Amino acid sequence: MSAIIKKELKNYFLSPIGYVVIGIFLIAFSAFFYLTSVASSEINLTYLFYYTALYGLMFIAPLITMQAIAGERKSGTDQLLMTSPVSIVNIVIGKFIAAMILIIIPVIFTLMYFAILAHYNLPDIPTYLTSILGFLLLSMTYISFGLLASSITESPIVAAIVTFAIVFASTWVPYFVSSLSGLSLMDMFIKFLYGTIDIKALVFFITATVLCLVITIILMQRRKSVG
């Protein structure tokens, strides 16, 4: 699995994608830090994570995952993976972990904003930590959506569009369809911004992530057996 993770990270940083993703995150984090903390004199980072999740992840998740599997199929390198001694499970999980590392890197940079606020008054540490946890859980779910979308097509563009559509729907549709109100991923994420770990939301994020990864593995296993 480590070989897959290294390969994926190498692919990210030998192309513009890795730098573009980190750049978008840092720009979003910096902009929302200024707007929600500096300009309003608030000693917390809650809204920084909220607005970055709401307006950033919707575009970043498709960008990160669009090439993960669809790109391999388009270039024909998926056959090398399929015939390698690495199992499909390790391939999918390796790609998932590499994508999450690409998100974790800019999240670590939020320590800089924490240090800036701490210079004036110490922010609420538990709230900061649960906000990060919620942000990463939401990111995990979106990345798993992206990998699943990338596994059903050989077009990275189509994979990106499908991922964006799923993320957009999971964010906004529950607000307009009352029967789906309990499935709003953003509402579940918001609970972590109040400094508490919501077990129900935690289980939902993990279950959704695992389910998407399992389906991705099954689809790739079937393609391998057919091929």
Describe this entry's structure for a reader:
- The protein has one domain (2-222).
- The protein has 227 residues and is mainly alpha-helical.
- It has helices spanning 2-13, 16-38, 46-55, 57-65, 70-75, 78-82, 88-108, 110-120, 125-151, 156-176, 185-192, 199-226.
- It has 12 helices and no strands.
- Helix content is 80%, strand content 0%.
- The protein starts with a helix and ends with a helix.
- The model has no long low-confidence stretch (mean pLDDT 88).
Key descriptive features of the protein:
mainly alpha, 12 helices, single chain, 227 residues, 80% helix
Low-confidence stretches: none
Query: Percent of residues in beta strands?
Result: under 5%
| Record field, number of beta strands | 0
Order of helices and strands: HHHHHHHHHHHH
- Distance between the amino and carboxyl termini: 22 Å
Mean pLDDT score, rounded? 88
Number of helices: 12
Largest beta-sheet details: none
Shape: globular
The number of domains is 1
Structural class: mainly alpha
Helix content: over 70%
What is the radius of gyration?
18 Å
Task: Give the secondary structure arrangement, pairings included.
Blueprint: H1 2-13, H2 16-38, H3 46-55, H4 57-65, H5 70-75, H6 78-82, H7 88-108, H8 110-120, H9 125-151, H10 156-176, H11 185-192, H12 199-226
Helix pairs in contact: 1-2, 1-7, 2-3, 2-7, 3-9, 4-9, 4-10, 7-9, 7-12, 9-10, 9-11, 9-12
How would you sum up this structure in a few lines?
The chain is built from twelve helices and no strands. It has helices at residues 2-13, 16-38, 46-55, 57-65, 70-75, 78-82, 88-108, 110-120, 125-151, 156-176, 185-192, 199-226.
